[in-house]
Specification:
about 425 residues, 6-stranded mixed beta sheet
């Protein structure tokens, strides 16, 4: 009810609130498409909410922030319990890294175990508003979330998958009733998804353009992560927010959430946004290293952080880093796996390989001096480790053979396999 227009992030041209999924037509070029964002009447929002109002709204998940979302509050909203995820302080890792306040925003607590549920919850609502019967997804965790919410909204999800996608996400998609089409290569999705949008009037929750654009409405769901972080920090703002980045819609959405709160005066500063990429891709890292506003397309290599293995980041991602005076940084598979084990063994947090990219990037930034000791840093954990058991399993040795109930054999296993001496 408070949304006003769609606006181009690059040229500033405004459009009425309608179905536009391929970026700004006005400034589009051969190798560039700018993202559209939803604009809001901040003055009206200021009159409606304040800190106390938000703090009193309990059990509403992301919908407690409905004034900042492109929805009509008079329409029925369906929820699976998305949002209100914990912000966990990592004291042991903080001491190791010499960071005063290190936190993890644990998005694995969402209904389908991914931060994508925030996006899909808004996307399914908007799809119904536009009288669409289909959610069109590009596979992975997004498809799993879309299928779950389709089940609740009486929609259908069609997902275009690559063969190397997470089997767990695929099983979830099928279990919820999603329809999967396997593709031989990543780019094969573009034309098929476009036809589903144009011919079937499907609502795309994934991008299908070479320069990632996607649905500007559903991407607003990511903003609620920033709202929750600020509220959980007693309306203080982190110095750095580190986000695993593929196409970068989550990165920008979180940044935009902080901007929303700043614009209506609920916070008085803004964080630096850190785009944490896998070195197997690194589109944004390479763009900034080249000191060029033309976003670099890459050929993705094999990586354990498969959920962010994208050939090109969105213009939104570029702007999130640039506008926040942030940074893009890439980390290797070895660094990612080391960070995953640090999360698990030091803090009891079982991260996905993709999510561990945020901690791996934090280690690297601390080493190079880009994070001060007295900083407050939030690593966004987008999904849990149960999404990637195949990749994680490869990094552990084979388990010992079964034994009988023999104490000496037990002690031998403890020593041989786990380097744990039991002398009793």
């Amino acid at each position: 009810m408070y949304e006003t227009n769609l606006k181009c992030l690059n040229c500033g041209k405004e459009y009425e609130l309608r179905r536009i999924f391929e970026g700004c037509p006005h400034c589009k070029e051969k190798d560039f498409s700018s993202n559209l964002i939803v604009t809001y009447d901040y003055e009206m929002i200021k009159e409606k909410i304040d800190k106390n109002t938000l703090e009193k709204r309990r059990g509403l998940g992301i919908w407690k922030y409905e004034e900042f979302l492109p929805i009509d509050s008079r329409e029925i909203k369906i929820t699976l319990g998305e949002g209100e995820t914990p912000l966990l302080k990592c004291s042991d890792l903080g001491r190791e890294l010499e960071i005063k306040n290190l936190f993890v925003k644990d998005e694995s607590r969402n209904p389908t175990y991914s931060f994508k549920d925030r996006l899909i919850s808004v996307g399914a609502f908007v799809a119904r508003h536009f009288s669409s019967k289909y959610l069109i997804a590009g596979g992975g965790n997004l498809a799993a979330g879309a299928s779950a919410y389709s089940a609740k909204y009486n929609l259908e999800t069609i997902s275009f998958e690559n063969l190397d996608k997470s089997k767990q996400a695929i099983l979830q998609t099928l279990s919820y009733g999603g329809k999967i089409v396997y593709l031989k290569k990543y780019e094969d999705r573009y034309e098929l998804m476009k036809k589903c949008v144009d011919i079937l009037k499907g609502h795309p929750v994934s991008s299908y353009t070479p320069s990632p654009t996607g649905d500007p409405y559903s991407q607003e769901g990511h903003k609620t992560i920033a709202y929750e972080i600020c509220e959980q920090l007693k309306w203080n703002v982190p110095d750095k927010v580190v986000v695993p980045t593929g196409q970068g819609f989550g990165l920008y959405g979180i940044w935009r959430g902080f901007v929303d709160l700043y614009e209506i005066g609920l916070i008085d500063s803004l964080p630096n946004m850190i785009a944490a990429e896998t070195a197997a891709c690194g589109s944004l890292t390479k763009t900034f290293l080249g000191k060029n506003e033309k976003i670099k397309r890459v050929v993705p290599e094999k990586t354990i952080a498969r959920h962010i293995a994208a050939p090109k980041v969105s213009y939104k991602a570029y702007r999130a880093v640039k506008d926040s005076n942030g940074k893009a940084i890439s980390v290797t598979d070895d660094e990612i796996m080391s960070a995953l084990l640090s999360f698990a063994r030091r803090e009891g947090i079982y991260s996905s390989t993709t999510s561990a990219v945020s901690l791996a990037a934090t280690y690297k930034l601390r080493e190079e001096g880009s994070i001060e000791k007295d900083s407050t840093v939030v690593c966004v954990m987008t999904t849990g480790g149960l999404k990637d058991p195949d990749y994680i399993e490869k990094n552990f040795p084979d388990l010992p053979s079964p034994i009988h109930g023999n104490w000496d054999e037990f002690k031998k296993i403890m020593k041989t396999y786990y380097n744990l001496s039991i002398d009793i």
